[in-house]
Amino acid sequence: MSAAAKTAAPYFAAGSFAVSALGAIQQGKAANQQAKTQSEMYARQAERERQMGELAAARKRKEGKRVAGTQRAILGAGGGDMSEGSALLAQGELAEEAELNARLLENNAAAKISSLQAQGVLERARGKSAQTAGYIRAGSALLKGAAQFG
Q1: Whose CB among 15, 32, 34, 102 lies 3.0–4.6 Å from 60's, allowing a Cys bridge?
Q2: More confident call, 70 vs 50
């Protein structure tokens, strides 16, 4: 090995450790940004689930009112009295069932929303951990380099 090569070798090694450290930092930052993007996607999905749950529940309530109206019309056409007896009980049960079904739809949507929000929180934590790990790898590379020259 020539004298110039021997003189330049430590500088190349130091440059190699610096490049390795910068690469580790950039990798951690990229992983963190990717996790943030994924978390934002989960938030958008959660909002969509909220909207879809509200819509499904509203449709179920509307359907219940339509069925109740049809039932009243049929009973009224047959001369039945809707204000007392079994006809009144049937109307009440029908309304309760329609509301129960609507609330079940809302509850299912809420469960999906909660799950998506939890996934978003986990993604953000994963991203922060990846970024921290990148800084640790960078510090390790720099310490290795310093140990070689120290």
Answers
A1: 102
A2: 50
